[in-house]
Amino acid sequence: MKICVLPGDGIGVEIIAEAVRVLDVLNSDGLKMELEYAELGGCAVDSTGSPYPEATQKLARAADAVLLGAVGGPKWDVLPRPQRPERGLLGIRKDLNLFANLRPAVLYPELANASSLKPEVVSGLDILIVRELTGDIYFGEPRGISVEDGKRVGRNTMIYNEDEIRRIGHVAFKSAQKRNKKLCSVDKMNVLETTQLWRDVMIEISSEYPDVALSHMLVDNAAMQLVRAPKQFDVMVTGNIFGDILSDEASMLTGSIGMLPSASLDENNKGMYEPCHGSAPDIAGKGVANPLATILSAAMMLRYSFANEAAATRIEAAVKKVLAAGLRTGDIWEEGTKRVGTREMGDAVIAAL
Ligand code: NAI
Ligand code: MG
């Protein structure tokens, strides 16, 4: 199993180091993972001028999975858009055809107080948002800012073809089959034709999954329902822009950005795995970042790309054990728990493993 490791920028370097130490433990227990490092984002801009340089493309394409820290930071915000770190991220997603973004939002019982919602509303929350990642208004043409009739006009295009909708639909239905057989498709079919097609295609393929109950919700209502009664959802599937917003909303119900992993998959379960958070420039280099989102992303990698459920649950169980023992990084710390740094958290997970 070849893994391309991209630490990236800011805390990316610190948290990836801990995830790699966890993988090393599994390797020493007999797994055969080969790790190769490359640059993505700001660090790549600094050394090559491109946020997704050719050497990284080569390695990422040849690997079975990519493990990414985070990219970006204020240092690079002054650059023209094509050279910004975030373009590296969009570039690798598109290049590897990672159209399926899986974002679990799980509230660990030990972190119940981290949520801004009442315990009875969120306790036991465990939802999975399946977001389409390579289409929609983020990539649609035409786009840009132009001058028309003496006025500046901004333009983006929301576009999906039925094949793009169908393939993300299949990922979502299959995910629902492995969980509680409930799928909610989110659209805005009352005003957007693109999403009318989205709904039509979801209904069409639902006949292949008779064991899954498919429901539909308009995106504005979904945003409300997520804060009103989030536990009504199990798996949600939606397009790129709605999924961007709803998955951030859902993840924040758990109150702990440092805990949230993600997977982005292609058609053959090759994937890129990364925490949901960014490079956290405010705490970078201080050794206080929470490495658990990245460690849990490595667990998702074992589950989805390497079909090693046992190793994935072993990592997840170790994380739960560490939380139960009361260890907390700053982002999830509360009165009565023990505050630890990035390295100590990694040590604790390894000990629990
Ligand atoms: P951010 O997620 O980096 O940070 C938001 C807040 O959460 C900060 O206060 C940060 O300290 C805290 N935080 C994030 N991860 C943490 C962790 N593991 N442990 C403890 N605290 C943590 O989002 P922000 O500040 O909006 O963006 C910073 C940079 O990251 C920007 O350049 C942005 O473009 C980039 N970014 C990159 C992403 C990626 O690589 N996938 C995703 C989101 C942002
Ligand atoms: Mg986002």
Which features would summarize this protein structure in a list?
Isopropylmalate Dehydrogenase; binds 1,4-dihydronicotinamide adenine dinucleotide; single chain; ten-stranded mixed β-sheet; binds magnesium ion; 2 domains; globular; two-stranded antiparallel sheet; alpha/beta; 353 residues
The average pLDDT value, as a whole number, equals 96
Per CATH, the class of the largest domain reads: Alpha Beta
Helix fraction bin: 40-55%
Uncertain regions spanning at least 5 consecutive residues: none
Bound ions, cofactors and other small molecules, one mention each = 1,4-dihydronicotinamide adenine dinucleotide, magnesium ion
Instruction: Supply the CATH superfamily name of the largest domain.
Output: Isopropylmalate Dehydrogenase
Structural class: alpha/beta
Computed Rg: 20 Å
Strands, count? 14
The CATH topology label of the largest domain is Isopropylmalate Dehydrogenase
Major beta-sheet overview: 10 strands, mixed
Strand adjacency order, main sheet = 2-1-3-12-11-4-5-10-8-9
List the total number of helices: 12
Order of helices and strands: EHEHHEHEHEEEHEHEHEHEEHHEEH
In the residues, how many domains can be counted? 2
